[in-house]
Amino acid sequence: MALEGDVLSYYKKETKKEKCGEIRLADASEIAVERAADYKKHSNCFKIVTADRVYHICTDEEPDMTAWIEALNKQKTGSGPSSTTQVATPVANGNGHHHEDAEPSSANEKKMTVEDFGFLKVIGKGSFGKVLLVRKRDTGKVYAMKVLTKSKILKKNEVGHTKSEKAILVRLNNPFLVKLHYSFQDTDRLFFVMDYVNGGELFFHLQKEKRFTEDRVKFYTAEIVLGIEYLHKNGVIYRDLKPENLLLTRHGHIIMTDFGLSKEGLHTKDSRTATFCGTPEYLAPEVLEGNGYSKAIDWWSFGTLMFEMLTGLPPFYCEDVQQMYTKIMSADLQFPDVISDTARDLLSKLLERDPARRLVDPAQIKSHAFYASIDWAKLENLELEPPFKPQVKDDLDISNIDTMFTDEPVTLDDDEEEEDSEENPPPNNGNSDWDGFTYNPANAAKK
Predict the structure, then answer these.
(1) Pair (183, 217) in one structural domain
(2) Which CATH number fits the domain that encloses residue 137?
(3) d(Cα 447, Cα 443) in Å, to the nearest integer?
(4) Measured between alpha carbons, how far is 179 from 195 in angstroms, rounded to an integer?
(5) 239 lies in the same domain as 345
(6) Both 356 and 270 in a single domain?
(7) Domain assignment of residue 181, given as a range
(8) Does position 179 have pLDDT exceeding 60, yes or no?
(9) For the whole model, what pTM was predicted?
(10) Which of 268-277's residues contact partners 24+ apart within 8 Å by CB, and which partners?
(11) How many angstroms separate the CA atoms of 79 and 200, rounded?
(12) CATH number, position 44
């Protein structure tokens, strides 16, 4: 383990090459000795209690445990080292043992299961599963349930991304980000229960209308600016900004969704990561170069998305992916006549190949002439009237969802089940990998 600022990172091995996760001390309500006798047969344990889970950390010796608790509490209260100080682990051999509660720890706490929901429609599909429109049986409330197949996630080594998505959804709260209400699992699947946003994907509306008016683009992109700014302030890089991941509420506001490729822990301006991921049309040049990148890539994707909204296609689009990558790296940026001078100026600064010269400061973006008519305070409070309001009859309306999804049979079954092979994960689907996945705010409030 390593403590840097108010973030405690824990690793799979002593070498600290493979990070398993991190705990923000600001989110902890308690850091104390684990009073239960020998937690899971481990002694010298202490616990860190957060809203969504309890972390149990075991040390080799009791003095090590005491030293950790003291160091963590000092940092939490602001009397510890500065945020740039690396704190040497007081655990013998630099090794600690970390555990997360997989399920609610009290017999009085509710364990959510798929039986708590009734299935209504399929409303989306992805690489690892599908999204269902569901109704919670005890309240009648309607949600979107994202169902992921564990075996597929394991086979494609996406466990880290999936756990990070859950952690991000639990921790962040913003009017332009989708909200997670529950998460749980069974032997074969993971379940995210989120807001049902039924104004349709931005992709759905853009396909119908070919391109949007500049006023409409201005409104949508301004709300996205606030969403990205919030993510970056909280150390999250989005990495998959595209029309398919942007939903419209029934009132016409933007909701950013699908944080499966997002990454936590980038809390400084210079924080970098290197995983090659994202959707080809929206990848920044530095991602293609493969030498690591910063949160600046989200602003390149933002510029690409803005260009697509104004014209109908991303700026360097090509059916041949390799040719498209070449164009992203070297082709001149061409503006059709439909793009105004102020929009061209903003796009030129966003689609700057050198991330050091790219416009990435949200304050400067918001003060650009393109957004001169936007009252940012009112926008953030959802007080500006959206330029377009989707036709939505009620909470169950699916008319803005593509029929290629809604015509699907409503089942949990994966339509592309993999045949058994030596390459496939074992029958238990690596369930030890999903400890701590369960989230129920009603239980968290009792802790």
Answers:
(1) no
(2) 3.30.200.20
(3) 7
(4) 6
(5) yes
(6) yes
(7) 114-197+395-444
(8) yes
(9) 0.73
(10) 269/294, 270/294, 271/235, 271/295, 273/237, 277/161, 277/239, 277/240
(11) 48
(12) 2.30.29.30
More reliable by pLDDT, 94 or 252:
252
CB burial of residue 134 (10 Å; 0-12, 13-18, 19+) = buried
Q: What are the tens digits of pLDDT across the range 61-103?
A: 777 777 888 788 777 666 554 443 344 343 333 334 444 444 4
Q: Is residue 307 part of a domain?
A: yes
Whether residue 361 is found in the same domain as residue 306: yes
Strand-by-strand arrangement of the 180-185 sheet = 117-125, 129-136, 142-149, 189-194, 180-185
Backbone angles phi, psi at 314, to 5 degrees: -65, 155
User: Which of 25-34, 291-300, 375-384, 385-394 is predicted least confidently?
Assistant: 25-34
Listing DSSP states for 146-187 in one string gives EEEEHHHHHHTT-HHHHHHHHHHHHH---TTB--EEEEEE-S
Q: Enter the tokens of residue 316.
A: 């360097």
The verdict on 245 and 348 lying in the same domain is yes
- pLDDT, mean of residues 147-173: 90
- Tell me, yes or no, whether 159 lies in a domain: yes
Residues 64 and 94 in one domain: yes
Least confident among 49-53, 228-232, 332-336, 431-435: 49-53
> What is the rounded average pLDDT of the residues 405-422?
69
Q: How many domains is the chain partitioned into structurally?
A: 3
Handedness of CA 289, 257, 272, 152 (dihedral sign): negative
Q: Read off the pLDDT of each residue in 143-162 and give the average, rounded to a whole number.
A: 91
How is the chain split among helix, strand and coil, in percent rounded to 5?
35, 20, 50
Residues 123 and 406: beta-carbon distance below 8 Å? yes
Q: What is the pLDDT of residue 30?
A: 77
For residue 201, what is the DSSP state?
B
Strands 180-185 and 142-149: unpaired
Last residue of a domain, one of 100, 124, 152: 100
DSSP state of 302: H
Question: What is the set of active-site residues?
Answer: 240
356 and 216 within one domain: yes
Name the one residue in this structure whose structure tokens are 């390799």.
322
pLDDT digits (tens, 9 = 90+) for 100-131: 444 444 445 567 899 999 999 999 887 788 99
Cβ–Cβ under 8 Å, residues 57 and 96? yes
Strand partners, 256: 177, 246
Together in a domain, 210 and 189: no
